[in-house]
Amino acid sequence: MSSKKKPVTTPLHLLQQLSHSLLEHLQDACSAAQADAEKLLAKLEKQRGKAQDKLHDARGKLEAAAAAGKQKAQSKARAAIDELETLLESLQQRQADTRHYILQLKRDAEDSLKLAQGVGKVRDAAAKALGAREVAARQVSASAAKPAAKPKTARRPAASTSKTVSKTPAGQAAPRKPSASKAVVAKPAAVPASKAADAAQVS
Domain 11-141 - what CATH class? Predict the structure, then answer.
């Protein structure tokens, strides 16, 4: 079974996938074009080798026909030689063109990959943005999963009477206020009666 691709959920996902696919297709296309050109060059080289072998055989037949004085065989050998020489020239030209194409293809591939670095930066930026979004989503879900803390009730201070009681050492009575009778100032003593009578006579 073929693995199912994850659905694109946001424009950032789409941007990341498109830029990644573009880079992959570009690299694959460059590699495939170079591989095809190399295969064509190898095929031309093989054809050229076979044509050279046939040309060598045709020249040998021409020499043998000339030594035997066979005009018809000589004519046939010359025609084969001309055809093979033309084929060799064509194969050599195609080989030269293919080598030039391979060199140009390598330069184009390098230039294309350099220009595509901007696409790679776009892909990396999209991936970074998606990663930051996932981290933020995890933090939000983690904070939501924690139970809410119960508010602490403030304790009221104890009454002042309890503080005074606690400060008094055990076994000692609290100091009492002076009674009102002691606070009254004593009146002056009465004047003797004899002194009062003397004072009356003098007057």
Answer: mainly alpha
